[in-house]
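Lab notebook: predicted structure, single chain.

Context: the supervisor wants predicted structures on file for every construct in the current expression panel, including those that have not yet been purified. This is the next one on the list. No modifications to the sequence; it matches the entry in the shared construct table.
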Amino acid sequence: MQNPRQSNTNTTVVVQYQGLLELVLFSVLSTAPSCVCLFINGTMLIVLRSKPVFRETSRYILLYNLLLADTVLLAQSQLLYILAACRIRLTYPVCGVLTMLANLTTVISPLTLVMMCLERYVAVCFPLRHTSIITIRNTSVAIVVVWAFSSLNVLFCVLLLLNFPFGDLQSLQMTDFCGKESMLLDQVSDVYDKVFTYLVFLSAGVTVTFSYIAVVVAARSVSANKDSARKARNTLLLHVVQLGLSLSSTIHNPLLIAISKVLDRIVIVRIQIVFYVFIIIFPRCLSALIYGIRDQTIRPVLMYSLCCQWRRSALLSVVPAKGKVTIQINH
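Prediction complete. Output recorded below exactly as produced.
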């Protein structure tokens, strides 16, 4: 007859093994979409700098700025996710740098979306003045203002962080995994972060909604360009979805913390993976999908670049068994 204690030990080992296997499987399933999105976003960034029409058009300049912020934020999120999955804890200074980088890009994304919506609003509602209002110089100034505003927020967060008595700690090694909530070390930092985030997204939401309503009203006008207004309306509607998903990403960690108090650990891991894919990864790849598929100017260039990179990687992976093989590709 089997010893009950040995049976319980074997059952515990099996459960732990299954939990570890499931964690590895879900980690792979979450890392793969992130790598695909980073690849698409990186290719899109290269495409937007490849031709003069992209470098000299305001909407594509704004799109480049949005994609750059989303790509940096996605890479930072994936790095922190891998570190947490590997149970690696950082020091406070290293985590602080990564967190401030996330704060920088988190503010840049919704503000850039606002500028892109305003550009579409001017194009539809004031078509005769569009070229005089939306210029390369004005677009560059707007982007500098957005980066400066976001940088001031990061600077203020750093000043609040420096008020914490790190000298009283026995070690700068963190006891928890690195994340935004882990660096909110006092009540003042927590309140400031919530108020600032909600104000930014509330202002952005009001502006985007106003732009969408104005374009819808203009589309019903007799003198309006129906096709242009329809495309602008659909684009603005997608930007509203983007803004909503970006807002949901700010409550990702607090929501997980609340769920962790009432659910089992394995269930929490499953929910965390789903949230990470649909709330963190998907919104950062949505801009490339929207413009890569819908924009008639970007789509052929993007498809050509993706196909060329795929073909090049496939050729590099083929190793001939005998002799030397010469392959010529005609562009």
